[in-house]
Amino acid sequence: MASSYAVETHDLTRQFGSFTAVDHVSFQVEAGEVFGFLGPNGSGKTTTIRMLCGLLTPTSGDGHVLGLDIGREGEQIKARIGYMSQKFSLYPDLRVIENLEFYASVYGVPRVQQQGRMAELLALADLRGREREMTSALSGGWKQRLALACAIVHRPQVLFLDEPTGGVDPEARRVFWELIYTLATEGVTVFVTTHYMDEAEHCNRIGMMHGGKLIALDTPAGLKRSTIQGEMLEIEGSPQDLALDVLKGLPGVRDVAPHGARLHALVDSVAAQAPAALSALAQAGVEDARVEPIDPSLEDVFVALVG
Asked: How many Cα atoms are found within 13 Å in the side-chain-facing hemisphere of 102?
């Protein structure tokens, strides 16, 4: 079946025995889009991406990548996509340039083009000057950049990134997303899975996974607009459990949930509930109470969807 989408699935399902890891998932990804696949660990993201890359056969349903059937044309798909797994498939006993050369050979980059392509990738990933370093000696952030360079050595039309920023520091994550944007401006379709809610804000559209099901699909702004019915407050105070109980009992407070060391409360009106919340917390003996209006985050959206 020909498709105008870079990636398309219909009722895609994968079972392992009696366990359904991916449950009738349907979506489309436009060419040139940065598409985020968001959800907690175990939600079905990696299983989905492995099926799309031709690494795992669906139990039922179907999918297409660049018009190729993921169940029947896996080998053709592999030749036309880039795939970067969670564990960075690099050879630690090779030098930086040797890893690039190896993947260029694997992907069939003609020898006459390899030298020029190596130079482009070293510049893109800011690895110039590190060509002779052993890969095992690189930090997590540098290994991440090298893994990305290896995944795109053959100029793929679609790039699949599975939790690419796990285990690296915030600065390395920021730099990596700049690289993703650079690739997108060059027309590459980027399909990225992540459980970092803040990262998903960078995507053109987001699919949210939970329990193997696709529970929402829209732009970041669209998800917030359709899911968050009300206004949001962020609350700090100690002890947090007491603050949570106090807020739950206030009129106009629709929902309260912990977000790390803070609480997020969905309220009817910030103007009405903020001063009432601050007063109630003080009266209940909550120390160092702070109440501020905030814009809803994708984490708030996810909490609202799954309850």
From this structure: 13
Q: Select from 62, 46, 55, 85 the least CA-distant residue to 13.
A: 62
Structure tokens at 79: 């030749």
Give yes or no: residues 242 and 213 share one domain: no
Q: What is the dihedral of CA 160, 165, 166, 170, to 10 degrees?
A: -170
Which residue segment(s) compose the domain that 297 sits in?
227-306
The domain that holds 152 is classified in CATH as 3.40.50.300
Residue identified by tokens 């003080």 is 282
- β-sheet bridge partners, residue 25: 12
Which pLDDT does position 219 carry in this prediction?
97
For each successive 10 residues of the chain (307 residues), what is the average pLDDT?
A: 83 98 98 94 94 95 96 93 85 95 94 94 93 93 92 96 85 89 94 89 95 97 93 96 96 92 94 95 95 93 88
- Rounded to an integer, what distance in angstroms lies between the CA atom of residue 76 and that of residue 70? 9
The token duo for 64 is 């297409």
Q: Are 263 and 244 in contact (CB under 8 A)?
A: yes
The reported pTM is: 0.88
Sign of the C-alpha dihedral computed for residues 233, 238, 243 and 244 taken in this order: positive
